[in-house]
């Protein structure tokens, strides 16, 4: 398993160093870097990264817009990453971090159990045929 980074800026004048630092801290052992507009279809480093993906690899970007410019393009790239047996993580977009999803789901489920328990306690008298204010 390898953590593979992808960094991109749109023009030659822009600096990649901030993205490179973040990707290194995230554990990227290989970082593919480009200075090219995301609107261009020919991004050689992106193609090289996609071709070299192996099962178990994790593709990491700083933000979604570094990988692709449109929703369709992003979805296609993420689908292709998955088909290669790799996974995808966007550091700046927790929606695309499976670990954040699990934490959110656990918090949601815990909160649901708490609300359900409180509702049952409040409504138990009504279930027993007693008057219960605030229940249904």
Notes on the protein architecture:
The chain has 136 residues and is of the alpha/beta class. The chain folds into 2 domains: 3-96, 3-Layer(aba) Sandwich (Rossmann fold); 98-130. 48% of the residues lie in helices and 15% in strands. It has 5 helices and 4 strands; from the N terminus they run E-H-E-H-E-H-H-E-H. Strands 2-1-3-4 form a 4-stranded parallel β-sheet, sandwiched between helices. Helix 1 (17-25) links the parallel strand 1 (3-9) and strand 2 (30-35). The radius of gyration is 23 Å and the shape is globular. The mean pLDDT is 79.
CATH topology of the largest domain: Rossmann fold
The helicity comes to 40-55%
Number of helices: 5
Judging from the principal axes of the Cα atoms, what is the shape?
globular
Largest sheet data:
4 strands, parallel
- Unreliable stretches: none
The number of distinct β-strands equals 4
CATH H-level name of the largest domain... which superfamily? Resolvase, N-terminal catalytic domain
Beta content:
15-25%
CA radius of gyration: 23 Å
Topology:
Elements (H helix, E strand, L loop, with lengths): L2 E7 L7 H9 L4 E6 L8 H9 L5 E4 L2 H4 L3 H13 L3 E4 L7 H30 L9
């Amino acid at each position: 398993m390898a953590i593979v980074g992808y960094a991109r800026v749109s023009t030659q004048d822009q600096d990649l160093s901030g993205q490179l630092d973040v990707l290194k801290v995230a554990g990227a052992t290989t970082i593919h870097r480009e200075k090219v507009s995301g609107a261009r279809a020919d991004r050689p480093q992106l193609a090289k990264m996609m071709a070299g993906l192996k099962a178990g690899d994790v593709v990491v970007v700083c933000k979604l817009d570094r990988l692709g410019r449109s929703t369709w393009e992003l979805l296609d790239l993420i689908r292709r990453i998955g088909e290669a047996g790799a996974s995808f993580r966007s550091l700046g977009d927790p929606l695309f971090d499976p670990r954040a999803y699990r934490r959110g789901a656990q918090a949601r489920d815990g909160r649901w159990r708490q609300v359900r328990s409180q509702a049952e306690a409040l409504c138990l008298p009504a279930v027993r045929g007693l008057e219960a204010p605030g229940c249904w």
